Amino acid sequence: xxxxxxxxxxxxxxxxxxxxxxxxxxxxxxxxxxxxxxxxxxxxxxxxxxxxxxxxxxxxxxxxxxxxxxxxxxxxxxxxxxxxxxxxxxxxxxxxxxxxxxxxxxxxxxxxxxxxxxxxxxxxxxxxxxxxxxxxxxxxxxxxxxxxxxxxxxxxxxxxxxxxxxxxxxxxxxxxxxxxxxxxxxxxxxxxxxxxxxxxxxxxxxxxxxxxxxxxxxxxxxxxxxxxxxxxxxxxxxxxxxxxxxxxxxxxxxxxxxxxxxxxxxxxxxxxxxxxxxxxxxxxxxxxxxxxxxxxxxxxxxxxxxxxxxxxxxxxxxxxxxxxxxxxxxxxxxxxxxxxxxxxxxxxxxxxxxxxxxxxxxxxxxxxxxxxxxxxxxxxxxxxxxxxxxxxxxxxxxxxxxxxxxxxxxxxxxxxxxxxxxxxxxxxxxxxxxxxxxxxxxxxxxxxxxxxxxxxxxxxxxxxxx
Length: 466
Prior knowledge:
Blueprint: H1 3-14, H2 17-27, H3 32-59, H4 66-75, H5 77-107, H6 119-137, H7 144-167, H8 171-176, H9 187-202, H10 207-210, H11 218-243, H12 249-253, H13 259-268, H14 270-304, H15 322-338, H16 345-373, H17 385-431, H18 439-460
Helix pairs in contact: 1-7, 1-11, 1-14, 2-9, 2-11, 2-13, 3-9, 3-11, 3-16, 3-17, 4-5, 4-16, 5-6, 5-14, 5-15, 5-16, 5-17, 6-15, 7-11, 7-14, 9-16, 13-14, 14-15, 16-17, 17-18
């Protein structure tokens, strides 16, 4: 796989449902000032993570499937397993946001679909879910050509939106939205409230490292990661900021998803809404393909490393890991059913997707700190150590702040997924005739189970809701 192909894959996986929801998601939490601060923090933090993945790809070329492999190398098999499960589950939940957003988009003209979480919408999403499973199973493995075409097709509407929004921007509206509405709270509260949204939009920045085993040169993995990130950061920030110049913040916050369509409609009329909606459907379907492949890849590589049961390492002659693909589709189906009981299906799935990635990202960043800090590290040569240590430390602090921003709710819901998934870890250990858990791993298991139990209790008693 060439660097151009890998960069297109990173951009293709990052530009998905999140960008089309940005105007209302930001307006629900913050004004222009808070948005600028939030993007500055998110951009800097995610750039540090991009540099971390670039560094690790070069320093540890033998490690494939990026996020999972780095966590395992740095902190042991069980935490590596957790990173694999978290990253895989986040991709599966993220795929559900795509179907919810598609149905919500069509729901604007077909009310029976509501905002994507009605019974009919779930049934149609289920059909799409399994149609993609059959398509990929036939041999659409990397789909590089399709991914490049879809990436262009979905970036164009976003760029057109930014240009048109700038053309119709109303300075007085932008000024009124600068400090934020009364409901937004303090600047710190505004920034904290948008952190999970920014994580969701940047998911995919690690995409090249997930496919590192296919790279022609290891250096291309890191370069594709950084180029992909820089290519979309300005676009994401622009979509958010220019929207504040078209409508009052309170009105933007009430727009149905995809809110970008409603913002453009206010400026140019109905054709703008249709234009964005069509772009969204193309974007989401392309991102869904990319993320389904990445999710299956994580399970497949983990199974090849004996950290998942052996049945997940099976693949067809076309190199399609069908059992891993099936597991991915089944989890997405389960989450899709759960959205029927959610008050706000899209936002719940979006924020859970972001929360599930935080532990894998934190472990990868912490591993980079260990490499740079280790005595005799190859990073010392040429005075590089201080720079790499600083970058890794900033990435670690950023991901720790994201976990704090996510709050207890999503941490507990994440444990509800992590703890039962340990069954797969036990299956793998038994297949190898090994001791199931070491003393340290038992402590981690106890924390996960306790968190899952607390999460179930909190949900059942209504202390937290979805």
